[in-house]
Write a sequence for this structure.
């Protein structure tokens, strides 16, 4: 598959996403039109729409130095510029993690964050919110030469005192000694900690984002990459060199910075065996060449414990050359098309399924509720019409009896409302306990105390014990929330069952708050914390550097997860009883409609046929409401119960 087809697939994906946004907005308008909207459902729908509009497919490229990773990015995405856009010449490798995307509002630029920012207790995510902290170089996209010159900054280095390099986490005495470097005054370090590139490429405009990461040392000293950015990428492309296979440093990077931080889930992981041109042998036949590649694939798959079909042998250098020169024979020999096919089909399909699952999880319940309510209203209207067709409305006693029965239902409705208000008050108390279990003040108190204790630790061992204590206390806090969640879930089920059994309401399975996703996310952070706590890098680093890294990455991530749990619990408690409220309102509407029809028939001087025709006309809006919803549900393509 050619890159042009990949662009087309990305374009189709972008159009599909835009159509989905349009359909969800239609559903929101439908709820407004028929009086079903409330604050909770509106927030839920608008959040989904905002998320879809901001959605990006992130491809992260990870490799040890000199594997040809940046050249692969050039070949895949930037060959049409006619030059090697990103610097990837021998001896000039990407020194700072680089994000490549399209910023429609910001224009075309490179933003560079200085390496000294590592000394500040501020996360990359926070720095990104403040453009003034970055050096910006505007890009002239009509001049490939100007862009090529600007991109040279990505490999810029400078000399700093060894003590400064140590504080920055960029000095490893043991590694330096292995290279014969003993007690230097100055150390070469990257000029930039992170780079952001906004570029108007068609794929980037369609929602693609590329993360180009440096080698193992840089990943180890920038935990936010492996703890935040890599796990959130839709696909990670891990690049090896075909002539060396899986080296010791490759394997360390694979286990510690790729697989581990995806929770062991290998979906969306692909391995590119680059530089197969190094295995070309003009004296050997084609079969011998293929056998050599297959043998290396088999060995690498066994070492990395992955399927052979996600290892792609490629020559990025020859692929870039072939695309620039429009040499189809060389492009085929580079074998890039198989990788492009994987990106175009598997990754986009995975992302589409993830988005649909997310939408189903968040608004599927609302759509089901709408479908059930409209179905119940229509069924009641039809049943009432059939009932009226069989009644002798010339008999005044019969009409009076029906009106009396309907008023009895009205009195029962008032009792329903009173009971609902009482149940809601009981639930509010329990729900507040759930919300308070994730309270920011409670979490921050634990985090602040432990950070103070870490700073006072006289030994690395003591500091590591305080890290463990912090994670244990957060785990205990979460367990308390689990117990409260279970009690809250039982109460919600009991309230729904009461209204079904005592008042004959249609049974709706309540949307229950689940704490499982936060448990999984936090346990993964705790595992990462254990790796961080026991790593040699932590032992060798200055204590203040370790604490700052821990708090700007792992602890910030844990805090955000618990903050999200608090927000989700609040939103859930505000909306979980809404379906019952809608049923009560619908019940009231049915009673009032029945009384209106009975009065109309009783006071009418027309014929029974005319009155029945009038009743039939009352069903038309209900049919239209139902039909509109069916069209919207079909357009959403959601997996919901109907």
């Amino acid at each position: 598959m050619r890159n042009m087809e990949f662009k087309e697939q990305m374009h189709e994906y972008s159009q599909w996403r835009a159509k989905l946004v349009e359909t969800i907005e239609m559903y929101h308008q439908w709820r407004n039109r028929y009086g079903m909207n409330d604050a909770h459902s509106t927030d839920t729908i608008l959040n989904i729409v905002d998320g879809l509009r901001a959605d990006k497919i992130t491809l992260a490229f990870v490799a040890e130095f000199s594997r040809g990773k940046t050249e692969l990015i050039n070949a895949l995405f930037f060959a049409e510029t006619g030059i090697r856009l990103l610097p990837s010449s021998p001896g000039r490798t990407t020194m700072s993690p680089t994000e490549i995307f399209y910023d429609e509002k910001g224009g075309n630029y490179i933003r560079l964050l200085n390496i000294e920012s590592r000394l500040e207790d501020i996360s990359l995510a926070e720095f990104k919110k403040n453009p003034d902290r970055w050096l910006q170089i505007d890009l002239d996209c009509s001049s490939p030469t100007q862009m090529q010159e600007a991109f040279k900054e990505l490999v810029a280095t400078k000399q700093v005192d060894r003590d400064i390099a140590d504080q920055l986490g960029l000095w490893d005495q043991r590694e330096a000694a292995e290279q014969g470097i003993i007690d230097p005054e100055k150390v070469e370090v990257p000029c930039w900690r992170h780079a952001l590139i906004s570029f108007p490429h068609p794929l980037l405009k369609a929602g693609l984002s590329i993360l180009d990461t440096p080698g193992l040392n840089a990943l180890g000293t920038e935990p936010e990459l492996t703890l935040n950015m890599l796990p959130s990428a839709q696909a990670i492309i891990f690049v090896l060199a075909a002539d060396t296979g899986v080296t010791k440093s490759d394997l360390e990077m694979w286990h510690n910075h790729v697989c581990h931080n995806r929770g062991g889930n290998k979906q969306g992981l692909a391995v590119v065996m680059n530089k197969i041109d190094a295995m070309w042998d003009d004296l050997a036949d084609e079969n011998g060449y293929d056998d050599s590649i297959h043998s290396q694939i088999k060995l690498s798959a066994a070492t990395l414990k992955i399927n052979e079909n996600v290892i792609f042998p490629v020559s990025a250098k020859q692929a870039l050359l072939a695309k620039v020169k429009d040499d189809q024979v060389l492009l085929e020999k580079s074998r890039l098309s198989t990788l492009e096919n994987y990106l175009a089909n598997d990754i986009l399909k995975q992302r589409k399924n993830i988005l649909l699952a997310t939408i189903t999880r968040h608004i599927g319940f609302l759509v089901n509720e709408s479908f059930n309510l409209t179905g119940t209203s229509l069924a009641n209207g039809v049943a009432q019409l059939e009932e009226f067709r069989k009644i002798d409305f010339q008999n005044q006693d019969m009409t009076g009896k029906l009106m009396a029965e309907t008023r009895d239902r009205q009195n029962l409705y008032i009792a329903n409302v009173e009971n609902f208000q009482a149940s809601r008050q009981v639930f509010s108390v329990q729900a507040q306990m759930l919300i308070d279990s994730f309270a920011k003040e409670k979490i921050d108190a634990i985090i602040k105390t432990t950070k103070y204790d870490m700073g006072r630790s006289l030994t690395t061992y003591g500091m590591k014990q305080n890290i463990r204590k912090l994670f244990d206390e957060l785990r205990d806090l979460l367990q308390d929330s689990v117990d409260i969640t279970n009690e809250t879930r039982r109460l919600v089920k009991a309230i729904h069952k009461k209204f079904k059994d005592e008042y004959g309401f249609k049974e709706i399975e309540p949307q229950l708050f689940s704490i499982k996703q936060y448990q999984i996310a936090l346990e993964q952070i705790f595992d990462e914390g254990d790796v961080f706590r026991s790593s040699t890098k932590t032992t060798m680093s200055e204590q203040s550097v370790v604490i700052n890294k821990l708090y700007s990455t792992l602890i910030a991530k844990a805090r955000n997860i618990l903050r999200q749990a608090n927000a989700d619990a609040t939103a859930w408690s505000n909306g979980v009883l809404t379906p019952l409220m809608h049923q009560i309102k619908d019940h009231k509407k049915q009673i009032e409609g029945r009384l209106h029809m009975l009065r109309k028939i009783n006071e009418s001087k027309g014929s029974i046929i005319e009155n029945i025709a009038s009743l039939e006309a009352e069903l038309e809006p209900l049919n239209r409401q139902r039909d509109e919803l069916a069209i919207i549900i079909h357009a959403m393509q959601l997996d919901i119960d109907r």
In short: The mean pLDDT is 80.
